[in-house]
Write a structure and sequence with these properties.
about 230 residues, mainly alpha, 2 domains, two-stranded antiparallel ribbon, about 70% helix
């Protein structure tokens, strides 16, 4: 009888231990799941911008798993500068009272026409002016690289949420899928072709000369100020 009672107590004790162990394992598994979910949310759900800006506004994850599943995020200096420019322009447009869809359409028209209009201006202008226009276009392309994307495209998206982009036309014509990576790559390829064609135009007009570069440095360094001061 005593032996039977002792065996029953041992069974109950083992059963309680197993239940406690299962509860502990369950708590640990839930904790892990929460950490994974928080980490995913921190990486994926972060300042997404569609259009050419899709993915451009994502914060760069520089550390993860710090502390209790905390994901440390830091936005790069290039994106900070671009976001500052975008936000200031969007705020100015909203304060102006212009309907946002109308403002977005106006920006899209300028965005699409600008490269062709600048090249047309270079064709009908003097060799020196065409050289200045080519350098201006080079500066715009440099801003695209340095700011990791097109400022105008992000402004267009922030105004209306419309993800249509000027590069979508060319992607559609050549049968490519329309998404951020293809848009970015297509922009780089189109810009290189455009700059080469623009440079050949300036070269044929006689704009690439020592005198024009010397004149460009003269105006670019504000050397003419000394002439005014001496007067």
């Amino acid at each position: 009888m005593n032996q039977h009672m002792k065996n029953k107590e041992n069974e109950n004790e083992n059963k309680n231990k197993n239940e406690n162990k299962n509860e502990i394992d369950k708590v640990v598994d839930e904790g892990k799941a929460e950490v994974v979910d928080e980490g995913k949310a921190g990486v994926i759900g972060d300042d997404k911008v569609v259009g050419e800006g899709e993915g451009e506004g994502k914060a760069e994850v520089v550390g993860e798993g710090k502390g209790d599943g905390e994901v440390v995020k830091q936005i790069g200096i290039r994106k900070k500068i671009r976001n500052y420019i975008v936000n200031k322009n969007v705020e100015s447009i909203k304060r102006s009272g212009i309907p946002l869809d109308l403002a977005c359409l106006f920006i899209k028209i300028i965005h699409f026409r600008m490269p062709f209009d600048i090249m047309l201006m270079a064709y009908f202008s003097s060799p020196f002016v065409s050289l200045c226009l080519w350098i201006t276009v080079m500066s715009i392309f440099s801003c695209f690289i340095l700011l990791d994307g097109c400022v105008l495209s992000v402004i267009e998206y922030k105004l209306t949420g419309n993800s249509l982009n000027v590069m979508d036309i060319f992607l559609w014509l050549f049968g490519y899928d329309i998404h951020y990576k293809n848009r970015y790559n297509a922009t780089i390829i189109a810009a290189i072709i455009y700059l080469l064609l623009f440079f050949s135009l300036v070269w044929n007009k006689g704009g690439v000369t020592y005198d024009n570069f010397n004149k460009l440095l003269y105006y670019g360094t504000f050397s003419y100020f000394t002439k005014w001061i001496s007067l």
